[in-house]
What we know:
CATH superfamily of the largest domain: P-loop containing nucleotide triphosphate hydrolases
Helix content: 25-40%
Low-confidence stretches: 293-298
Radius of gyration: 22 Å
Amino acid sequence: MNIVTEQLNKTYRGGRRALDSVDLHIDRGTVGLLGANGAGKTTLLRILTGVLRPTSGRVEVAGHDLSTTAGLTGAKRSLGYLPQELSLYPDLTAREFLDYIGVLKGMEDKRQRRAQAESRLAEVGLGDRAGDRLSGFSGGMQRRVGIAQALMGDPAVLIVDEPTTGLDPHERMRFRTLLAGLGHNRTVLLSTHILDDVAQTCPEVAVLAAGRLVFHDTTSALAGLGAGITYLHRTHGGPPADAEVVSAVATAEGSEYRIVTPRPPAGAHPVEPSLEDGYAALLGAGRRAAQSAGPSGR
């Protein structure tokens, strides 16, 4: 396993629990990490990258125990990371920037380091822009440089945080294609709130809710949670009060709601569930369970 957490907990000052007994085991391949704002995704990524220490529990990355100094050093050398906000050096060329990242990663052989920089830029479709300054790169091109720098040193584990946020549709499609090919010989953990990114690039998905791991299975299994409870409902009024609304479209005949509910309103038509529907079903069930548990329930 390239990523292992066991009974992982993180509690911040003031008693706010960000992660609650998270047991996560990930081998090779691309895995999507989903969760609403505040679910614990950022905290988990910060722990996996060694930026943050957990309150308790065990963490291993690429076989290295992060509780030890040697393990933390080994994990960082085995890890590539693309944060949501990557600070580039605008006066450097793409080639110079990747060479600098290679130095930071401990790649001492200059010839090998520079050859790998050229190879990584070619891999992300920027081989012909290697000598151009980063200040002239578009947002999508900068994201691709971000992937290239994360791949320096040929890491066993690649962690990518919200990589397509703010990209135009063309760049988003190009970036998804790039991500889909990176998990063949390594572990890729893709944290995002864009379900289409997961649907098109990740065969496996993990979902955090209120700091707990509430789902870890195939992407198709998550979509399947919406089977038999996903409907289209056309009405001149609002959506049913007890349904999870996945989408709403205004039409000449009124509003068309895509809803997830075990009790469909009259006239609703069943449809095949998408990943969004399964995700809504999962989180909706969690909310209902929390409400039924009362004030003391989680």
